[in-house]
Design a protein that fits this description.
Oligomer: heterodimer
Mean pLDDT of chain A: 84
Strand order of the largest sheet of chain A: 2-1-4-5-6-7
Radius of gyration of chain B: 27 Å
Strand content of chain A: 5-15%
Distance between the termini of chain A: 26 Å
Helix content of chain A: 55-70%
Shape of chain A: flat
Largest sheet of chain A: 6 strands, antiparallel
Number of helices of chain B: 11
Chain lengths: ~900, ~375
């Protein structure tokens, strides 16, 4: 495809733009950024692919912003042999016009035109190559994969000298498809088709194995059944042999048993004979013993009697002594009693005196208490009767004091008259009032006498004169005060029901006296009484009175008893006398004790003697009785069986015993001869054998029944037929599987062969492309450049100055350059079937030096069309012969 | 007095080369022949039928097989005596003792469990020599013959096993000693010995007293005269035996040399000539040298004809056919470029005779097919 002309109207930022391209070689389109260089080719893309009526976003975006106008794109192209012009209007006034100029003129519109255009493109243009050779803005720096471009590969094929039939690839695809049925494309692993066949064979194999095993088990069960049947027959035969044998041996045992029984009987007999023999001999011995005993008993009785007599003789004197001692004791007792009585009486008298004293004392106390109480009572009564209270007394005293004070004050204020006697004088003073008495005092020469004159005073100077002194009226207040005080005093006294303070004092004294009496009572009570109080004391008095009365009575009685007057008794109760009497009592009692003790001793002695005597007598009697008893018994026994008879019996028993022994011995010998044990063992053995066989037979039958049951149960499963079917299935599946694998191997081998050949072919025709890239590249990089391409016809490595680097390892600039060079080489090679190479704002990474050289390379391009879009035309100055177009 | 002598029904048999529906038809045919035997016995007025062993293929046939067999036998109008053979001995757990058999066994069908004589009609005794297990000790048939009284009665001993003089080997268990049997016949102990085990009808001795009846339907390729039953007439002093063909299936081998296209045509004709192909099992043995196209043609031919037969057996890989890549093959594989290179590489390998020569040949065939697909489109 070649582009001759492009024209756009109202497309994005461009209201109108038209570019004419060089039919071959380089066209540089220069325009500042954002002005629409890219838009131009975007519009071309849309023209070639989108129908007029499309609503796609990228077509709507052709509209200039804010303007609802039709966008129009026109292109004049050569597609294959066809030279044509196509115009499309989008978004508004939609239209398509296609004018084919050559080889056959045609005019088409609308979708028909679009379809025709598409057909032409597909038929004559390598769209893959077109895409590969579009270096858009921002395109990645990956290497260009050109293997998809058929136009290219065809040419390469031709260059490589191959037939270049496109069908080959279709064939290759079919081969790959066939192989893919059997093996996965990536890991070349068997697909489900093969693995399922394998699995099916495995499963069938397992099923056959299972059924075989089952059949085998049934076979062995069947064999076992037959074996069991023959075993059963054998066991039954054996049992038939063993049964009579057992019977025979049992008979032998019975014989032995009989013999044994006889032996047992003989042994019993022996035991009987032996015991009889024992009895007889024992009887003889017993009789002899008895005789001896009787003799001994007689002797013993004799001796015991003698002893008893001896003891009896001792007792009598002892009894007599005891009598005497008893009478002595009685008299001692009487004496002691008398002495005690006398002492007691004396004591009683003493006690009575004491009691009388105690009584007096107690009475005195009581009297004091009572009198104190009575006094206190009357004092209290008097106290109660008075009007005296301490306060009142205090008031009185205070009032009296005030009076005195007032008087004193008055007196103080009162004029003072001092009389100094110049001679002996009889001074008399008289207070105011006529009633006042005259106080006379004798004054010696020089004696002074001071007198206050509270109100008025009359001084009598002997008989000479009487001076009246009257106090001034300024004393009236004081006088009033004194009056008041005196009134108060009078009131206070009235309270106490007295008239004068002195009486009050006297009353106070009286009150105090009463109070003292009361206190005295308390003291007396305190002193005389115990805790129990007066009642206690009164009680004590009564008690002492009673005691005195009792003791008096006792003494009275005693006095009657001893016929001594009581008073005498009383008198004789002094301490010395008491002592004397006590001593007498003591000695009398001691004598009594001594006698008593001796009496006891003697009594004990007598008792003991009597006991011994009694004991001896009893023993003597017992011995006699014993002798009598034994003798009686002996007589009786002898009466029953005489001594000779006994001896005769013993002899007979001895003989019988001997005989029994001999018989037992003979039976034992007989048994030994028979070897009884062995016979019994034989029976046990036979029985055991029979049991074993019977047991085996039972087990055999049981197992047989089980096996039969198993066989019958499984018989219905149809194992045999199932196995046959399973085997048939297995054979069939194996055949199928093998067939599949055979076909798989063939497909794989075919694919491998093709892959190998293809790889070689590709390798072969990669060469022209590589050569062309290197040829151009050397002008840019240097003479020692080499590149390597992969099967996708991508540059995978660059070798420069002997150093090989992978494409990814190269710098951005180098990659850029190599990409453009390989695209250029492709465009060159593709030739007539090719497409333009479009470089939109590229080579940004390339330094000026390389840029210049690259420009040189581009400048050499003659065949293909190259379009360079740039905002910096100076970058591409080095491209000689380029057609430069400025947009805008 | 006629008796129908048959054996080796082997009901429940499966053949691995018969797939799916062919197997079902085969099994059905083997049951169907029983009906024909019943009809034959009735036509020939046989007083009873003796089946000399291998009634069932296995000791444990499927319950269906048992049921269907008994159902067919129920329609027989004369007594049927079944002898346990080596495939179906009467050991514990065998089908003969199973409830499935005993419950459904018709009254006129009797299993020859022991050597006690059975009397179907006056004047005829049937004595069986059943196999008690898979490995019987001794010669059961000869024992049964010798055990019978020498009273020249019409007595048939039914036995099963190989006869050395006929089959050529002594080792198999249950082999029958012909000398003893014939001696017993001489002594008048037995009039006719009805044998089973051999699938082809065979007269064992010169006088015709001992016969194998053969299987009523064929089971394999090597049977000489299969598909038969015998009607034995005991009216006279010597038994008269008539063969009857009752089988409907055929097993055959077909060998041919294939080197040219004409040979392939002839092979096709041979196959088309086979009668009743749906009941035929054909085993092919081909040898020769073909090129790839011819091999493809052969494969197509066989694939097509195989659909008509019950089974068309041929080795998958044509072991005896050499494949060479001819010029026509190359033309057919008109490839260019690397495809041609690949094709040639495969051709070389297929001729090399190495391990993968066969695979290379197959690969070429495949290539031919895939490339042909393209051309035909």
């Amino acid at each position: 495809m070649r582009i001759h002309r492009l024209e756009i109207e109202h497309v994005r930022g461009l209201s109108r733009a038209e570019v004419t391209f060089a039919a071959s070689g380089v066209t540089v389109i220069e325009a500042p950024n954002e002005t629409g260089k890219t838009t131009l080719f975007d519009a071309l893309d849309i023209l070639l692919t989108e129908k007029q009526g499309t609503k796609r976003q990228r077509v709507r975006d052709l509209q200039p912003r804010g303007e609802d106008v039709a966008s129009s794109v026109t292109a004049e192209l050569t597609i294959g042999p066809h030279h044509l012009t196509v115009t499309k209007r989008y978004n508004r006034d939609r239209a398509t016009e296609l004018t084919v100029h050559a080889p056959t003129a045609r005019q088409l519109t609308g979708d028909e035109a679009h379809d025709h255009l598409r057909r032409l493109l597909e038929e004559h243009t390598d769209l893959a190559l077109w895409d590969a050779l579009r270096f858009r803005q921002g395109r990645s720096l990956d290497p260009v994969a050109l293997a998809g471009a058929n136009a290219l590969t065809r040419q390469l094929d031709v260059s490589a000298g191959g037939g270049g039939a496109v069908e080959d690839d279709a064939l290759y695809d079919r081969i790959v498809e066939e192989s893919a049925r059997y093996f996965t494309s990536r890991a070349a692993k068997p697909t489900r088709l093969l693995t399922d066949a394998d699995t099916a064979v495995e499963a069938a194999d397992a099923e056959v194995a299972r059924l075989r095993e089952l059949e085998q088990r049934l076979d062995s069960a069947s064999e076992r059944s037959a074996a069991l049947a023959s075993e059963q027959r054998r066991l039954e035969a054996r049992r038939r042999e063993l049964e009579p044998e057992l019977v025979r041996r049992q008979q032998a045992v019975e014989e032995v048993t009989a013999l044994r029984n006889q032996l047992v009987a003989a042994e019993a007999e022996l035991r009987g004979a032996a015991s009889e023999h024992r009895q007889a001999t024992t009887a003889v011995a017993a009789r002899e013993e008895l005789s001896a005993e009787v003799a001994a008993a007689a002797a013993a009785a004799q001796q015991a009697a003698e002893v008893s007599d001896q003891h009896a003789e001792v007792v009598t004197p002892l009894a007599a002594r005891l009598e005497q001692l008893s009478s002595e004791l009685r008299s001692a007792e009487e004496a002691a009693l008398a002495a005690r009585r006398r002492h007691e009486h004396a004591r009683t008298g003493a006690d009575l005196s004491t009691a009388r004293d105690q009584l007096a004392t107690a009475r005195g106390r009581l009297e004091r208490v009572d009198s104190a109480i009575a006094a206190a009572r009357s004092a209290e009564a008097a106290l109660a009767a008075t009007a005296s209270t301490p306060q009142r007394h205090t008031q009185v005293r205070a009032a009296a004091d005030r009076v005195r004070l007032a008087a004193a004050q008055l007196g103080a204020a009162a004029p003072t008259v001092t009389v100094t006697a110049q001679q002996e004088l009889a001074l008399g003073t008289q207070g105011p009032g006529d009633d006042h008495a005259v106080e006379r005092r004798e004054l010696a020469v020089g004696d002074r006498s001071e007198h206050r004159v509270p109100e008025r005073l009359i001084l009598h100077l002997g008989d000479l004169a009487a001076i009246e002194v009257v106090a001034g009226s300024s004393l009236s207040e004081r006088r009033a005060a004194l009056d008041t005080a005196e009134q108060e005093l009078a009131a206070a006294c009235a309270q106490l029901e007295v008239t004068t303070p002195q009486e009050a004092e006297a009353l106070a004294d009286a009150v105090a006296g009463h109070q003292r009496v009361v206190a005295e009572r308390d003291a007396v009570l305190e002193r005389e009484l115990d805790e129990g109080g007066r009642d206690d004391l009164a009680g004590a008095v009564r008690h002492y009175e009673d005691r005195v009365a009792a003791l008096s009575a006792r003494l009275e009685a005693a006095s009657e008893e001893v016929e001594v007057p009581r008073l005498e008794l009383e008198a004789a109760s002094g301490a010395e006398q008491l002592e004397r009497l006590a001593a007498a009592q003591r000695s009398a009692e001691e004598a009594l004790d001594t006698r008593r003790a001796e009496l006891h001793a003697r009594r004990d002695e007598l008792e003991a003697a009597r006991e011994r005597a009694a004991g001896a007598r009893a023993r003597a009697e017992a011995a006699t009785a014993e002798h009598t008893r034994l003798a009686t018994r002996l007589e009786a026994e002898r009466a029953a069986t005489t001594d000779e008879q006994l001896r005769a019996q013993a002899g007979t028993a001895s003989t019988a015993l001997q005989g029994a022994r001999e018989r037992v011995a003979s039976y034992r010998d007989a048994l030994e001869a028979v070897d009884a044990e062995q016979v019994e063992a034989a029976v046990a053995n036979a029985r055991a054998q029979l049991e074993t066989v019977t047991g085996q037979l039972v087990r055999c039958r049981e197992e047989s029944a089980k096996v039969t049951a198993t066989l019958e149960a499984h018989g219905g499963l149809g194992v045999g037929e199932a196995l046959q079917e399973a085997e048939a299935d297995l054979a069939r599946l194996r055949r199928e599987r093998d067939g599949l694998w055979r076909r798989a191997a063939a497909a794989r081998l075919l694919k491998e062969a093709f892959d190998q050949a293809r790889e070689a072919a590709y390798a072969a025709y990669r060469a022209p492309l590589a050569d062309r890239i290197v040829a151009a590249g050397r002008l840019v990089f240097g003479a020692d450049l080499d590149v390597e391409l992969d099967e996708e016809l991508r540059v995978v490595s660059r070798t420069l100055a002997g150093t090989t680097l992978d494409f990814e390892q190269l710098s951005a600039g180098a990659r850029e350059q190599l990409a453009i060079l390989s695209a250029l080489a492709a465009a060159d090679l593709a030739g007539a079937d090719g497409v333009p190479l479009v470089l939109d704002d590229t080579l940004g990474y390339t330094d000026p030096g390389r840029l210049e050289r690259l420009g040189g390379v581009l400048g050499r391009v003659t065949g293909p069309q190259v379009v360079v879009l740039t905002c910096v035309a100076s970058r591409f100055e080095a491209i000689r012969g380029a057609q430069v177009v400025r947009l805008l | 007095m006629r008796v129908l002598h048959t054996s080796d029904w082997q009901l429940g048999m499966t053949r691995h080369f018969l797939a799916g529906e062919a197997q079902a038809r085969f099994s059905e045919a083997r049951l169907e022949v029983l009906t024909r035997l019943g009809a034959l016995a009735q036509e020939e007025a046989c007083v009873c039928v003796v089946v000399a062993g291998d009634v069932f293929e296995t000791r444990h046939p499927d319950a269906r097989t048992v049921a269907r067999t008994l159902e067919r036998l129920a329609r027989f109008t004369m007594p049927v005596y079944l002898l346990p053979g080596n495939h179906d001995p009467i050991d514990p757990g065998s089908v003969w003792r199973s409830a499935a058999f005993t419950d459904a066994c018709p009254d006129h069908v009797e299993v020859l469990e022991d050597a006690n004589p059975r009397v179907p009609v006056d004047g005829l005794e049937i004595v069986g020599a059943p196999w008690p297990n898979k490995h019987p000790v001794g010669d059961l048939t000869a024992d049964a013959c010798e055990g019978a009284p020498a009273d020249h009665a019409r007595r048939i001993v039914v036995g099963h096993g190989g006869v050395a003089e006929v089959s050529g080997g002594f080792d198999a268990p249950g082999t029958i000693d012909l000398a003893r049997v014939l001696a017993a016949v001489e002594e008048g102990r037995v009039r006719y010995v009805a044998l089973g085990d051999r699938h082809s009808a065979t007269q064992v001795d010169g006088t015709g007293h001992v016969w194998f009846s053969g299987a009523p339907e064929p089971t394999d390729h090597d049977e000489v005269d299969p598909g038969t039953a015998l009607v034995v007439d005991l009216a006279g002093t010597r038994p008269e035996v008539t063969r009857h063909q009752v089988g409907t299936w055929t097993f055959r081998r077909l060998g041919r040399a294939v080197d040219t296209d004409d040979d392939l045509d002839a092979l096709a004709a041979d196959l088309d000539a086979v009668e009743e192909p749906s009941r035929a099992v054909v085993k092919l043995a081909l040898e020769g040298t073909l090129d790839l196209q011819q091999v493809a043609r052969l494969d197509a031919l066989l694939a097509d004809r195989a659909l008509r037969f019950a089974a068309l057996e041929h080795p998958e890989r044509h072991r005896d056919i050499a494949v060479r890549v001819s010029d026509t093959d190359v033309e057919a594989l008109a490839l260019s470029g690397y495809a041609a290179v690949a094709r040639d590489a495969l051709g070389t390998r297929s001729r090399s005779g190495g391990d993968d020569a066969a695979t290379a040949t197959d690969a070429l065939s495949l290539l031919l097919r895939l490339a042909g697909t393209e051309q035909s489109s």
